[in-house]
Each structure stands twice: as C-alpha cells, then as structure tokens.
Design brief:
Helix 3 runs antiparallel to helix 4, helix 4 runs antiparallel to helix 6 and helix 6 packs across helix 8. The chain has a domain of about 100 residues. Strands 4-3-1-17-18 form a 5-stranded antiparallel β-sheet, with helices on one face. The protein contains 16 helices and 18 strands. About 50% of the residues are buried. The protein is of the alpha+beta class.
Length: about 500
C-alpha cells in the first residue's frame, strides 16, 4: 500500500519484507533522502484475516473455538476472552470455584509457554550473539549449539506450559475446555500429580530466566535508549492494584506515572478507547478517546503490566518486580527492550501461580458448571493475553447468532508504539548509513521486543526469505540485499 502522503520525488524507499522471527507477516518501510537521512519509518501489517466478519451468523457458543484459530501460539487467550463474553451472553455470573481455577490454570500455562517461546526461540539470539552478529548463527539453532543449557531450559519451560494446556483441553493447540458457564472436563488427580512432579525444575528455570534478562539489560546501558520513548500504559489490575491476567478492572497510566483511569469497567471499554484506520496498514491504531489520536496512544503487554501494577501476588516475582522498578528511578520503566525482562518476571509469576493452583484441593473438583440465566444481547470478554490486553465483543440476535463482532488484539494496541520504536531506531542507527543486514536487524529487534502476533496468525518459523531493496523514485535499483531461506546473504 502507498503511504497516506506520497513522498517527494527526492526520497527513496527501503522495504524489509517480511520482518522475521515474529508470529505472522509484516514489513518495515523506510523513506530516505538523497543524503541517506531518514524521512519516515513505518511498520506495516499486510495480512487480512477477517475473523470479525466470518463468525457472523454462527451460534455464540461456537465462537470460542472459532476465534482460537486466529493463532497457533496464543489460541487459549482468544478462547478464554471469547468464553468470558459467551458467559455474559448466556446470563452467567460467577463460575464455580473449580471452573474458575481451571480457567486460571489454563491461562497461566498459556502465558508460560508463549513467553518462553518468544524469548528463548525468537529473541535470545539477538542478545546472546549481538544485534549485528552473523545471521547464520543468530537463530535458535545457533543458541542450541553455543548455549545448550539456556536453549534447553527454554524448550522445557515451553513444553511444561503446553502440558498444562493439554491436560485441561485435550490438545496442546486448539483444544476445547471452556463452555458457557464453566469447563467441560475435570483435572484428574493423576494429571495434577504428573504436573506437580516437574514443578521444582520449572520454578528454578523461571528464576534463571529472570536473572539472565536482568543481567542482559543492566549490563548493557545502550539497551536503555534502544527504541525507547515515554508512553502511556494500559492493562488489567486486580481490585488491590495487583498484577492480574484473567479478570479485573482497566488501569491506564500516563507516561509520568500518574493514573488516568483505575478499575475502569472493561464492559465500557468503548467509552475509554477509539480506533483509527490508516490506509497503509491492515492493523488499526487504538488510542484513549479523551486524549485524541496524537497524544492518546499507549502500550500494552508485560512492560505495561509491570509498570501498572502495585504488587505481584507471588513472592519471587514480586522481589523481581521491585528490582525492575528500581531502574525507573521512581517512575515507569520506558525502556523498550525491558519488555523482555518484564516478560520473564511474568513467566516466574505464572510458575509460582501454577504451583499454588496445583496444590489447591478445588483444582481436581468435579463441580464444573453454573446454570444459565437470562439471555443477553451482547457479551464482552477481556483478559491479559501474553502480548497485552485482549478485547472480545460480540452482539447476538434472539436466535443466539452472532450479528457483530469487534476484537482489539494486543498487537493492535501496540501498533503506534511499534512504529515509534522503528522510527527511533532508524533515526539513531540507520540515518546516513549504508544498508547492511546488521543494521536492518536493529529494526527487527525493536519490533520483536513487543512479541507481536501479526494478525494473530501461525507461520513457518525461519523459512521466510528477506529481500531489501534501495530504489530510486525513477525506478533504478541502487542497492539490494537478499537473505535466502537458509540464512545466507547475497
């Protein structure tokens, strides 16, 4: 797609298409002038899925299993957000203690496996080898060869999260589990015991992951300014301001740390947020309605959640949060690359919470369903997905068929922020420079910090070619680099 405002004839365009080591398909475009200075930098989402449209006409109780097909990495997040909306449509209020705890356990397993995948498989090569290192080594295979202990911990952490998902839903990807008013299967004592058997190692490896990221961030002062800028933040928090993933009120904080909204009812999210459409991206640009499009954009995800919460209700993760917050000198931590550190603090919290739930007698209960109430014309479900606050909103008719749907996925909320990070990195590292693969990877590092799930779609990891072309407006090719599927550059 062409930019909203066509560039002057003296500018040239560089395209990174696709961005690699992310979930989904996107590209970065740069406009530069004849002196190699950056005029504009943009991050584009170029896929269109259409889930909001083609679930129309389907029975509302089918929706959680349709929408989880949005993604092969975070299907549980979509299933749970939709399930909460479906509960409302069915007129169901409080679930049984066992059903609530099973959903929470499922959610913790989902976040654990997703966070492990993102850091160890997709992002750790950049930090362990360097942003400009040999791309043939800068991948998970290279990590396995050079740092096998780190890589294997990451693999096993993700595997454990998937085992929790499988025990509850029957499959590691795209299982079932939720039904209107509860869950469709109890967790057996044998399944619980099998999960408890490995929890000691998982707790230790989670602490190691936090320590590794804390060291990486604090040992490299240059990381603090990498694609960094002040921003507003949005997340759910519990009623006491605690970190909360499954249910709570919306908290919005300004860049200076002041509170804009607290315990805002997410069922009224349309009074809080608006969405802007731009011609050059399939992804919308949300913003706080009261602040407008220029000032109202915000960030979500691990950095937002750790900045927003007052406490983490598990001791090891809370101690890690205190160390993290100390780097902000009393205010929010705005460092974009601190997303990774915050992500591992959350991974540790998930592990501690999983341990607590597995030792709760309710978790193997058999009282799984709450009776239906009065049918409602709409339902809104909001949770904290691995990548940030996730909104599912459905309207249904008297026959229970979906008539309208609106989804605001986490990556959508981070859209403007990702563009800001790309612009900041381009201006600092690429402005006036000759194109190299190493410099281009700096742009991708900035995007990867957000763990974007681009259109929430699966993709073939590591098999996408990359071609970057510097082209004059007259059509002549000035410079071109190609990264083949085997990682070689020509």
């Amino acid at each position: 797609m062409e930019p909203d405002n066509p560039a002057p004839s003296t500018t040239r365009r560089i395209a990174i298409d696709p961005v690699t080591r992310v979930e989904g398909h996107g590209k970065i475009t740069l406009l530069i002038d004849d002196d190699q200075h950056i005029v504009e930098a943009r991050f584009h989402i170029v896929e269109f899925r259409g889930f909001e449209k083609f679930i129309q006409g389907r029975p509302y109780w089918e929706v959680p299993f349709f929408v989880q097909r949005l993604c092969g990495i975070c299907p549980v997040s979509h299933q749970l957000a939709a399930a909460k909306a479906v509960d409302q449509i069915a007129g169901i209020g409080q679930l049984t203690p066992t059903a609530t705890k099973l959903r929470r356990l499922l959610h913790f397993g989902q976040i654990l496996q997703s966070h492990a995948l993102h850091f160890f498989h997709l992002s750790s090569p950049d930090f362990l080898f360097g942003f400009g290192s040999d791309p043939r080594q800068r991948n998970i295979a290279g990590v396995l060869e050079r740092y096998p202990e780190i890589a294997l911990k990451g693999v096993k952490l993700r595997k454990y999260g998937q085992q929790i998902i499988e025990a509850i839903t029957g499959k590691r990807v795209h299982g079932t589990g939720t039904v209107p008013g509860g869950m469709n299967k109890a967790l057996t004592a044998a399944e619980r015991d099998a999960l408890l058997a490995g929890i000691g190692d998982i707790l230790q490896w989670s602490q190691d992951a936090v320590a590794l990221n804390e060291h990486i961030h604090t040992a490299h002062p240059e990381h603090r300014d990498f694609g960094t800028f002040p921003s507003h933040y949005l997340s759910l928090t519990g009623s006491g301001g605690e970190l909360e993933f499954y249910h709570g009120g919306l908290r919005a904080r300004a860049a200076d740390g002041s509170t804009l909204h607290d315990q805002f009812d997410y069922c009224d999210y349309q009074r809080l947020l608006s969405e802007e459409v731009r011609s050059w991206s399939y992804l919308k640009f949300p913003y706080f309605s009261s602040l407008g499009t220029e000032r109202g954009w915000y960030r979500v995800g691990p950095l937002a959640r750790i900045n927003n919460c007052d406490v983490i209700p598990t001791p090891l993760a809370e101690a890690a949060r205190q160390r993290f917050k100390a780097t902000g000198n009393g205010g929010p931590v705005h460092d974009t690359l601190a997303y990774h550190w915050a992500r591992m603090i959350e991974l540790l919290h998930c592990t501690e919470s999983i341990h607590s739930l597995l030792t709760d007698t309710d978790i193997t209960g058999t009282d799984l369903l709450t009776g239906k109430g009065e049918h409602q014309p709409q339902g809104i479900g909001v949770i904290e997905a691995p990548r940030g606050t996730l909104f599912h909103h459905y309207h249904v008719n008297d026959d229970g068929l979906v008539t309208q749907a609106n989804l605001i996925v986490s990556t959508t909320s981070n859209n403007q922020a990702m563009n800001e990070s790309v612009r900041a990195v381009a201006n600092r590292y690429l402005d006036g420079q000759e194109i190299t693969e190493a410099l281009l990877n700096h742009l991708e590092v900035a995007v990867r910090a957000y763990d974007p799930c681009l259109s929430c779609a699966t993709h073939a990891l590591g098999k996408m070619p990359l071609q970057v072309t510097l082209q004059h407006t007259g059509g002549s090719v000035i410079h071109q680099l190609t990264k083949r599927v085997d990682g070689a550059i020509q």
